[in-house]
Amino acid sequence: MSHHHDADVVVVGAGMAGLVCADRLRLRGVRVVLLEAEPQAGGRTAGLDLDGEAVDLGGQFIGPGQDRVYALAAELGVRAFPTHTAGANVLETEAGEVRRFRGMVPKLGPLALLDVARAQRRLDRLARTVDPERPWAGTNAATLDGQTFRSWIDRTAKTAGGRRFLDLACRAIWCCEPSEVSLLHAVFMVRAAGSIAALTDFEGGAQQDRLDGGAHGLAQRLADRLGTAVRLGAPVRRITQHESGATVTTADGTEWCAGHVVVAVTPPLAGRIEYDPPLPADRDNLTQRLPMGSVIKCVATYPEPFWRRAGLSGAALSLRGPLTLTVDSSPRSGHRGILIGFATGSPARDLAGRTPADRRTTLLDALSRLFGPEAGTPTGYLERDWNSVAFTRGAYAAVFPPGAWTQLGAALRKPVGRIHWAGSETSSRWYGYIEGAVRSGEAAADAIAPT
Amino acid sequence: MSHHHDADVVVVGAGMAGLVCADRLRLRGVRVVLLEAEPQAGGRTAGLDLDGEAVDLGGQFIGPGQDRVYALAAELGVRAFPTHTAGANVLETEAGEVRRFRGMVPKLGPLALLDVARAQRRLDRLARTVDPERPWAGTNAATLDGQTFRSWIDRTAKTAGGRRFLDLACRAIWCCEPSEVSLLHAVFMVRAAGSIAALTDFEGGAQQDRLDGGAHGLAQRLADRLGTAVRLGAPVRRITQHESGATVTTADGTEWCAGHVVVAVTPPLAGRIEYDPPLPADRDNLTQRLPMGSVIKCVATYPEPFWRRAGLSGAALSLRGPLTLTVDSSPRSGHRGILIGFATGSPARDLAGRTPADRRTTLLDALSRLFGPEAGTPTGYLERDWNSVAFTRGAYAAVFPPGAWTQLGAALRKPVGRIHWAGSETSSRWYGYIEGAVRSGEAAADAIAPT
């Protein structure tokens, strides 16, 4: 009933981190196998064809400073192109009023705008005090990690409008409410990206570019290149370490014996694997406290990007919800219109419990309010609730609550015997982004098989 | 290789909650099986003989208001007796000075004492605003859940001495640092116990009484009564729900088919079971964010309770650490001396990574500083790091970080199909205490098989 195989390295999880790690190891002559629980590779990048267009249901944007993912795309022959941004953005107020604006910050009234500008400035300044390699070690780490982002917003913003906009920004960036994030984690993420603008901007920021065929195409090409080294539908249940190596057991009882194991899944899912001997207390306890963000992404296709005719960019922010933000995700040619929308944080949780029909109606209503009735009758429609995907259980990334970085952060990246940790959450640059995943996969491969 | 069995109800986890639940179901004629991962029943109550005395390595105290555990003890023929409290308590300052004091609060200087008294008063007042059945539903729930206990302490206490003592109280009650706890959770715990004094006091509080033979004796008697219904060494890996029932699969492939399943393990461990169909997003995400507290309990035995001769009660608090607190746990007869010490929160994490010899030396040094050199040479010595126990992974209880109660708390107790949740964390009274476990086990049994 059970089967035994050998490899030099077993990589657990064929998200971008695992794929990059396995690919690099293979190129260095290492015998590697990549075990993936889902029936397809890609992890938090995922996609399919909708109306003949490759659409991303997961991560899809890249931007300046994300050197490793641009290099990977170039190597795989995938071209990047700019996200469509021409036209006015829109903001939906809590009362449901839809206002046009240019740039990244909508018209909120002068005092609220001052609030937001001050908050951005302070976050950037705080970010410079954090060492992304050791966020727990800074002189003000305990102070930053002792409070929620909510407490900081309430202290920093003097106006209700400013506070509401910062709440929205938190929801958009971290897929959670400001109460759930440690201020230190918020600041670390800014530092890991470079600046708050790097996180939030299209041009010059993390949403600047897209990839031909979608970001999931990168994952697919890597998986293709790895060929039979990738085993799909093979959830890992147990990792046993012994003197001469490690044994990785999948759900069907197959055993893989290897010299090293790279666990390239999210922290909470890494915590759900059985380890023998059990993991040290610090590592285990860390995986108990890093929940994934909550996001439902929807994709709607139209015969053309009709909003452009009305002078709109397709980018929207909504204080009313449930869509936190939308972006024009039409194909490069513009011969068809595609809008993507993100319900994040609290609205994503509210929607998760509804029926698919109710959720679809609610989200299309939200698009209609932002872009007019045409948005309510797409030719194609898809959505993905990442928190319901059995072997992902949330996105974009794990969120550090207060106290986690300073109490247990040192256990995040530290190998345990023959087990190495990868995944975007282990990266000190671009935590939570595709770039972070690529970097973490490269780093794990380098640790095991240096050039 | 795999075996199939049938039962009306499968209970997962033979801690106090699972034992009480299974026992009550059995008394009502329900065919029940109780699957326990560890080689013994008891969960977070655990004990053994040390120098011929039954000592508790886990939960051991009970007190007024904990009606169900007193009733259970009476039913099982186990007598309660008062914790020894005669004599002076001691406080070790951060500088290592050891001061005697009476009552619950040491001599901190008049302003610091005012701080502590004010904090106690405010916590009690806040507690009255929380409905323990629905902590997320109060009018000030979002405000309380948006901040850490750390932020509240810093705002409430005006003196460094007051703040340090409140930090110590947090470490003693929640086994974590104030940065890690939501203020709402802290207040909920107070409400679930009745008052802050109910949590902290010996006489009149949760540490008032002990049990002949130890609290783990209750668990053992229940397990004995359940007989072959308890299966030890049977970790549950998967729970599958289908139209006609549920199938529970253990690590060795044995399958138990039942009409109902009660999962009576801690929230993080409940999250590590595989569910088919996967759990709803809200329940799954909740289990990603409720880490267990960190505690190492040590037990040292002496020929006699020598500290009593010196006019000491054996109770100590230490601001220096690593022992947060100690208690006289000598047998009722007093014919032998037993001290128990608790390293909790940050000190417990520091100690977890050390060698057993180093840890023992460090903890005995700490006892010596508090009670004199005699304390450093016990006749017997034991310790347990609860975070290292594979199927417990922390104690006393799970800790809600900010945002968890208000965003996802409703998923804590809500059954999912045929699956019911038990364990002290699911109790609205005495959350985290043995009493909470007993109540949760009774409630789960009542939900499945009402009288």
From TrEMBL, chains A, B:
InterPro entries: Amino_oxidase, FAD/NAD-bd_sf, Flavin_amine_oxidase, Flavin_MAO. Residues 16-448 form the Amine oxidase domain. Transmembrane segments: none annotated. Keywords: Oxidoreductase. Its cofactor is FAD. The keyword Protein biosynthesis does not apply. The keyword Zinc does not apply. It comes from the Bacteria. PANTHER family: AMINE OXIDASE, AMINE OXIDASE [FLAVIN-CONTAINING] B. Belongs to the flavin monoamine oxidase family. This is Flavin monoamine oxidase family protein. The lineage of its organism: Bacteria, Bacillati, Actinomycetota, Actinomycetes, Cryptosporangiales.
